[in-house]
Design goal:
Elements: H1 12-25, H2 28-37, H3 42-52, H4 55-66, H5 71-96, H6 101-108, H7 112-119, H8 124-152, H9 164-176, H10 183-199, H11 207-222, H12 240-249
Helix pairs in contact: 1-7, 1-8, 1-9, 2-4, 2-8, 3-8, 4-5, 5-7, 7-8, 10-11
């Protein structure tokens, strides 16, 4: 049985995961400061980040609280945005084949960034390295900077002026961009972006993203891809295929990665 926690080496997936972890983790400062400003205590803000650990849901929760909403309304908004993580979980279970106690830790760190980092790799061990590096790295840094933001509170001023929200978006776009090399992904991205923009004025925060995700899911369901096509990436970030073909042309075997 293959191990679901491969030996960590500084591979391309690890490098990508660390970059994403730093960019996204820094944005935790913003959540910490906004959580305290919304009326939560420092410890409540930290606990919410540790236990919920999904940025969109966390911001939705404190947004409802700051607006005077009830706890049930805040929980409902957070749960609505968290639906996507359940879908990610099913994808990661199939891709990474996590078992034992790894499955429970993996569930906690299954978020947008860890899922995207894993899906962007071809080699199975690289997928696992990318997932764990991004997931655990973001979890540690997000909670560390959440605590820092909550403690500093008003001393920071408006946390959005630091531009950390832009850093998180830029990191995620960095994962998405290499996949936009064919016409269909570009068309799908444009359609989903338009759906999001058109839905924003009429729907509560977070709902436009879910609507766009449903459009993408419907697109994938009705597309004519081969039946065996699954979650494998449609790009070759580490140029595995190119290296393989080069060695075949020269009559030698491709190099084997050592762990």
């Amino acid at each position: 049985m293959l191990s679901s926690m491969p030996r960590l080496t500084f591979s391309p997936a690890v490098s990508i995961g660390l970059s994403i972890a730093v960019a996204t983790g820094l944005y935790g400062i913003s959540f910490g400061a906004l959580g305290v400003a919304a009326g939560l205590s420092v410890w409540q803000t930290i606990a919410l980040s540790i236990l919920m650990f999904t940025g969109g849901s966390q911001f939705a929760f404190i947004g409802v609280v700051a607006g005077g909403g009830t706890g049930s309304a805040a929980f409902g908004a957070a749960a609505l945005l968290g639906i996507r993580n359940a879908v990610y979980g099913m994808q990661m279970k199939r891709m990474l084949k996590l078992g034992g106690w790894h499955k429970f830790i993996g569930a906690q760190v299954t978020i947008d960034e860890s899922t995207a980092t894993a899906a962007g790799q071809i080699d199975v061990d690289e997928q696992r390295r990318g997932f764990w590096t991004a997931g655990v790295g973001i979890y540690v840094l997000w909670n560390l900077f959440t605590a820092l933001g909550a403690v500093l509170g008003d001393a920071m001023g408006d946390p959005r002026q630091w531009g950390l929200d832009g850093a998180a978006v830029a990191a995620f776009l960095g994962l998405l961009w290499p996949r936009l090399r064919a016409r269909e992904p570009v068309a799908l991205a444009i359609v989903c972006a338009l759906v999001t923009v058109l839905t924003v004025p009429f729907a509560p925060p977070g709902v436009p993203i879910i609507v766009a995700a449903l459009v993408a899911a419907a697109w994938g369901w009705f597309s004519r891809g081969p039946a065996e096509e699954g979650l494998e990436p449609d790009v070759d970030p580490a140029n595995y295929d190119g290296a393989h073909e080069t060695h075949i042309e020269h009559g030698s075997s491709p190099p084997q990665e050592r762990f």
